[in-house]
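Model it.
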Amino acid sequence: MKWAMIATWRMAVEGITEAGKDLSEGGFAGDAIEKAIKTVEDFPFYKSVGYGGLPNENCEVELDAAYMDGDTLSIGAVGGIRDFSNPISIARKLSYERFNCFLVGAGAESYAHKEGFERKNMLTDRAKLHYKKKYKETVEKGLSPYNGHDTVGMIAVDKNGKMVAGTSTSGLFMKRRGRVGDSPISGSGFYCDSEVGGASATGLGEDLMKGCISYEIVRLMKEGMHPQEACDKAVQELNDKLARKRGKAGDLSLVALNNKGEWGVATNIEGFSFSVVSETEEPTVYVCKKQENGKTSYEKASEEWLQAYLNRIHEPITFD
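Modeled.
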């Protein structure tokens, strides 16, 4: 059986690189997902996930995460959890619970404390500066505060054919306290079935939830579609339906992996990036073009693109 991992965004590549080494040696898909996502959560310059994640309207970091075992369909998830360093690990722990497997807010924090997870202030000085700058732009220039919603979502298949999906995010930048998007919600932000495959989403959660799009992609793969075909079909149909019913669609970007190690991706935005590693492919970052005529095209990220990305996430935060 071929092993493989696919993940949303460039920020995932370091994590899947390390986790891919484990999978190549016969490691378990669940361990790979947790390890790779923790790498993203722990890096303070990835401003939409974990430590250094973008805060809500009150300058508080509320985190969402989920974990799904494709063999058993067990799910664990947390929403709006504060002051714990690795929500993906808490979500994975919850996936072993028969009941009470999705906890939010104070309940999630109480569970995490009881189970011995590390407490940590997740609001960094850099995130505070991002908040202050956006607040200033919102008040003085009338710009929308609601941007910066880049969930890290991953799917893995190991050499034994086991599949696992996971997500982690700080959610919509300057969201209302208690807001939860698609990321920890089964069928919307993620779905995984080892008999078929898995999918994960990133973008505007309020719109992604309107299509249960991760489940839809897995359903299409079950009917025999290649992951690329399934992603393209699901994204185009949801984008068009939202445009027809509501006048426009928010950002919709999906990645998918089947149990053969084949992958696909689709997006309705320009510049969506994703990361892949497999038995036959070194860790690689790709950059997409906006879907046209129901087809998504992508190419390997150039060295110039990769360097510009690093420069951008490390650049000083300045005010006009």
